[in-house]
Amino acid sequence: MKKVFLAVLALSMTASVLTSCKEVEKKAEDAAEATESALEEAGDNLKEAGDDLKEAGENAMDKAKEVGEEMKEGAESAMDSIKKAGENLKEGAEKMGADAKDAMTKAGDEVKDAANKVAKEVEEATDDH
């Protein structure tokens, strides 16, 4: 009876160990599946982050190009304004020069007329005497 009892006890322990091993194997499979799922999700998240980063880089490049174009247009506008101001200054200087020439000619004519008048008066005065 003792032998039977030991045999039953041994069989019981063997069954317990086998059941325990099957549970460990099942838990290991579950953990492997969870790990695989987590790795797939992490891969998807990394891909999504990479796509977002690429999109952000493209947006930044587009914005930089836009700002560059605006700066170029601003510089061209400033150059046009400077050119126009230079043309206006040149026209003003030319007009001032023409006006000064006209004024000098007029003043010269007035001095000449005055000199002729004085000469005529002097001549008349000397003729009268």
UniProtKB/TrEMBL annotation:
In which residue ranges is the amino acid composition biased (Basic and acidic residues)?
44-78
Output the superkingdom of the source species: Bacteria
Q: Where is this region: Disordered?
A: 26-78, 90-129
Task: Tell me the SUPFAM superfamilies matching this sequence.
Answer: Apolipoprotein A-I
Instruction: Note the InterPro entries from the entry.
Output: ApoLp-III
State what protein this is by name.
Late embryogenesis abundant protein
The species is: Croceitalea marina
- Short name of any one Pfam family annotated for the protein: ApoLp-III
